[in-house]
């Protein structure tokens, strides 16, 4: 249902938001007009920041009843050349903490009223993830710390967004990598956060250790090379006090896996995924001082990651198949599936849900997410249309 700006400003206490988030009232009103701040109706009424507004992160969610603000998770900068970046960025630190960057999807979990909700990076409440975190975490932590937000990675094969099978997780699990305060978004120091998670028996991402800044690049290089063929994504390097923002560094195999996914649905994701990942490969090759044979192997793996999935997609379309991404959900109640189907419609995602299959005391539901742009483009070119 379309709503005019005056109706939205009446719903949102702009003066209060301006004070709490330290942004001018006119910036909030302007963002409402531009639909950068969007109203979302559901079990919890909220406004979400589709993009950053002044200093406020995209994905920030402002709940109306009860009034709560969950700040968007800050973007983490990426280093392509480890040694100079670490020396420059962490010049005020003696050591850095290095944690695993897991390959899943980013979730913020918060207590709103008396309900736990799981927010996507974009600031939407995902009904499926909300059901999962309620099962995985429970209420104890938030009973003692209602003012905090758990930021973590949902990982496993039963993921509607990033299904991964190499973590030896049966369904889906949650690993905390950050804790932040509501309203301010201020982070909890690394070891304090990990101790708190241990106390409440909530899983954390793996800590590889704390390393002197001058020597950290060697340790991180060994960690990345030690991943081998496991497809583990990379590391996040942090100021232990969380005063300086973290930086991330990823493995070559993870980059190639991302490209394979993107170019299977090339007209939906290919451009956005391509340039940055190619640059990462080039800089990593130079920093690791690769010989000609190693560099050629890297080039071959990169090229295959781009071309082979795209060739496969074109052949599928030529044979009359519809190009779709296969994912699956595992739920205790089919009501969650109905809610998730409505959620995908809200996001504008076209999906086909198969009939539920009973696995133990849960329902397994397979879903085909249709990537229409790739379908249309491939069909047109196969039919004789020009590229542009």
Automatic annotation (TrEMBL):
Recorded coiled-coil stretches: none
Ranges of residues in domain RNA ligase: 95-250
Keywords: Ligase
All residue ranges annotated as the RNA ligase Pab1020 C-terminal domain in the record: 261-384
GO molecular function, one term: ligase activity
Gene3D superfamilies: 3.10.450.740, 3.30.1490.70, 3.30.70.2160, DNA ligase/mRNA capping enzyme (3.30.470.30)
Keyword Nucleotide-binding included in the entry's annotation: no
Statement: the UniProt record of this protein carries the keyword Metal-binding: no
Protein name per Swiss-Prot or TrEMBL: ATP dependent DNA ligase domain protein
Organism ancestry: Archaea, Methanobacteriati, Methanobacteriota, Stenosarchaea group, Methanomicrobia
